[in-house]
Every structure is written in structure tokens, then in C-alpha cells.
Design goal:
By secondary structure, the protein is of the alpha+beta class. It has ten helices and five strands. The protein has helices at 13-39, 44-61, 68-81, 86-99, 102-126, 134-215, 221-250, 265-274, 291-311, 349-360; strands at 279-285, 317-324, 328-335, 364-369, 375-381. Strand 4 (364-369) and strand 5 form a beta hairpin. Helix 4 runs parallel beside helix 6 and helix 6 packs antiparallel against helix 7 (221-250). The two termini are 55 Å apart. 27% of the residues are buried.
Length: 385
């Protein structure tokens, strides 16, 4: 059992009230015994000695918090030869039970009983015989001693229970705060991932058309107007997507981020085709794809198209979708080697985010260059039957 150490802080009003209360009880106990001894006709010298012992015991009460075991042991021989000091001895024993382990408390209580019994045995040979039987006196002292010990242990365990409940409350509050912070961090990661996926796709479209205008300033007015229209529409859509994501971020209550499904892959293909890219979609999916599964597949296709526009803008892109309930959903985006590569290189954060998405969905993601110099992005996602 954990030891309870007396507090070394300054005593509060409750501590002072407790000390004065115990002091008053010990003093009242001593006064009662002095009255009993006077009625029994005890000599004045013995009464004076008892009073001195009582004063010593009452003085020791004020130091019991700092040295509970030492004070209790020091009072054992004094309480064995005197009656008035017994109240102070009981207070010291109560303090031991309150602040020290049960084993230590029982040892001190046993020493107190042994000292009292030894004194009675010796006194029975050298002094007058008591009115009560020796066994009754010992039993009364044992009941009084272990009653005080039981009271102290009860208060001790009650305090420990209160401290344990307080620690649990503090720990629960800290865990709740940590869970809230982790939830906020996950929400921010989701928002950052959505911003990367959505804006990366839109901005790649803008880059393709802006590059076309830059490299072909002599294009026919109709083509320039068409490219400018696509740029304007893509920029407008990018702003709309950004507003949706920022709106979720600013909302006082967490809202839902835009959640595309697998059906929106056709819209991605249409947008890419309108930008001048050659995109072929082959789908052999049977059954209704769950929204969560379709959203992850959509992001894989979106990232594949975005990377193809960045690094191989003139290469055709093939998208393969296949799967059924029980066998899983396969998504593959591939393109051959490009005749001309776009300048610059990406950070790879999009692919890392996709790998994390697939792992969270209990799937897998593979990506890398192919033997012919192209690039392949493939993912498999579990689809329960």
C-alpha cells in the first residue's frame, strides 16, 4: 500500500481545527482520569507525576504530524506507567494509522499493547491488586487501541479513495483533451489532403491551358478563346472548391468535406478531355460501390490525372476500373513515356497521402515508372460482399 506522507505545507484552518479538536479530546481524557485518581485517594505525588506526564503528552501532540511513528513510540513507555497520558498516546496512534502503512501501524499498536500488558504484569506483583480482573483491563485497552487504529485506517482509506477519484478525473480530462486535439489534427490533415487533391487537379488544368497559350501565341482566335474559357471555368471552379474547404475549416461546428464518389470519375475524364488530354476510361465494375470506397478510388484517379498532366502533358492516359463485391475494387491509371516532359517535379506528397488513404481503407497502393518509361499508379481496395 502506498504510504501517505504528512504534508509539510503550512497548516490550513482545517488542520488547526483538527489539531485543537484532538488536543481537547486528549486533555478531556486526562482530566477525567485525574478525577478518577483523586476519588481513589491516590497520593499527591502520584497526581503530580500524572499531571507532568499529561502535559508532556499534550505537548507531543503538536509534533505528531512531522514524526508520527517516533512520537507514538516515545509515548508507549510513558502511557504504560501513567493513565492521564493515555489520551495523547491514542491521538499519536491515530496519526500513525492515518499517515503510515498498515504494517507499521499494526506494529506500533502491538508495541503499545505489549508495553501496557508488561506494565500490568509487573504492577500486579509490586502494587495493590486492581478492582477489575486483569483480563478485563487488557481487553478494554485492546478495544480502545484497535478502535482508534480502525478509525484512523478508515479515514486514511477514505482519503486515498478521494485522491484516486480526483486523479482519475484529472486523467480523464487530460485524455479527453488529448482525444480532442487528435481529432482536430486529423480534421486538419483531412482538410489539407482535400485541398491538395481538389486544388492540385484544378490548377493542373490551368497550367496545361496556360502553357498551350504560351507556346502557341499564333493559334487561331477560336482555339485561344476556347482555352481562355477553360482557364476561366477551371479558375472559377477552383475558387468554389477552395471556398467549400475553407468554409468547413471556419465553421464553428465541424461540417462535412466535399465527398465525391466513383460516379464522379466520368466528370474527371470529361474535364481532362476538354483540356486537350487523351483519356480513355475502361470500367468493368459490377454492383453499387459504397461511398467511402468510391471516394478513395476517385482520389486515386484524380491524383493520377494530375500527375500525368504535370509530368507527361502530351501522353495519353488509360484508366482501368474493375471489381465486384467480395473481390475488391481495382483502380489503375497509366500513361506511356511522354514525348515532352513538363518542367519541375512534384513533392510526392499527393502519392504519400494516397498511400495513407489506401492503408486506412485496408487496401494497398503501388506506383512507379514502367519498363517503357511511362508511369503506373494502381490501387486495390477491399469491397465486402
Amino acid at each position: 500500500m502506498t504510504e501517505t506522507v504528512p504534508s509539510r505545507r503550512r497548516r490550513g484552518w482545517r488542520d488547526w481545527a483538527t489539531d485543537f479538536g484532538l488536543f481537547a479530546l486528549a486533555a478531556a481524557y486526562g482530566v477525567v482520569w485525574l478525577g478518577i485518581l483523586e476519588e481513589e485517594g491516590v497520593p499527591e505525588s502520584v497526581l503530580f507525576f500524572e499531571q507532568i506526564l499529561g502535559i508532556v503528552g499534550l505537548a507531543a501532540i503538536w509534533f505528531r504530524r512531522r514524526w508520527p511513528v517516533g512520537i507514538a513510540i516515545a509515548l508507549i513507555p510513558l502511557s504504560s506507567i501513567g493513565d492521564v497520558i493515555d489520551g495523547a498516546q491514542l491521538v499519536a496512534l491515530f496519526t500513525v494509522a492515518l499517515y503510515r502503512p498498515v504494517k507499521t501501524t499494526l506494529l506500533v499498536a502491538g508495541a503499545s499493547m505489549a508495553g501496557f500488558a508488561t506494565f500490568l504484569v509487573v504492577y500486579s506483583f509490586v502494587g495493590p491488586q486492581p478492582d477489575e480482573p486483569l483480563g478485563v483491563v487488557v481487553a478494554f485497552n485492546a478495544v480502545l487501541t484497535f478502535g482508534v487504529v480502525g478509525w484512523g485506517l478508515f479515514i486514511r482509506h477514505r482519503r486515498q479513495l478521494v485522491l484516486t477519484l480526483e486523479e482519475r478525473a484529472v486523467r480523464a480530462e487530460a485524455e479527453a483533451k488529448l482525444r480532442a486535439e487528435q481529432s482536430q489534427a486529423r480534421a486538419r490533415e483531412d482538410i489539407a489532403r482535400e485541398m491538395h487533391d481538389v486544388l492540385g487537379h484544378r490548377l493542373s488544368l490551368l497550367s496545361v491551358h496556360a502553357g498551350a497559350l504560351e507556346f502557341r501565341p499564333d493559334a487561331p482566335p477560336a482555339e485561344i478563346a476556347k482555352a481562355a474559357g477553360v482557364i476561366r471555368a477551371s479558375a472559377h471552379q477552383a475558387l468554389q472548391d477552395l471556398r467549400e474547404v475553407i468554409g468547413v475549416l471556419r465553421a464553428p461546428v465541424a461540417g462535412e468535406l466535399p465527398t465525391p464518389t466513383l460516379a464522379d470519375v466520368h466528370r474527371l475524364v470529361t474535364e481532362a478531355s476538354q483540356s486537350g488530354s487523351v483519356v480513355e476510361l475502361r470500367s468493368s465494375v459490377s454492383g453499387t460501390v459504397p461511398d467511402g470506397l468510391g471516394r478513395t478510388a476517385y482520389r486515386i484517379v484524380q491524383e493520377g490525372l494530375t500527375n500525368a498532366r504535370k509530368h507527361a502533358p502530351l501522353a495519353p492516359v488509360t484508366i482501368l476500373l474493375s471489381g465486384s463485391p467480395g473481390t475488391g475494387l481495382s483502380v489503375e491509371v497509366q500513361n506511356p513515356a511522354a514525348e515532352a516532359s513538363a518542367p519541375g517535379a512534384g513533392s510526392g506528397q499527393g502519392l504519400l497521402g494516397l498511400a495513407e488513404r489506401a492503408a486506412l481503407a485496408a487496401g494497398r497502393l503501388e506506383y512507379g515508372p514502367t519498363a517503357d518509361g511511362g508511369f503506373r499508379l494502381a490501387g486495390w481496395l477491399p469491397w465486402p460482399a
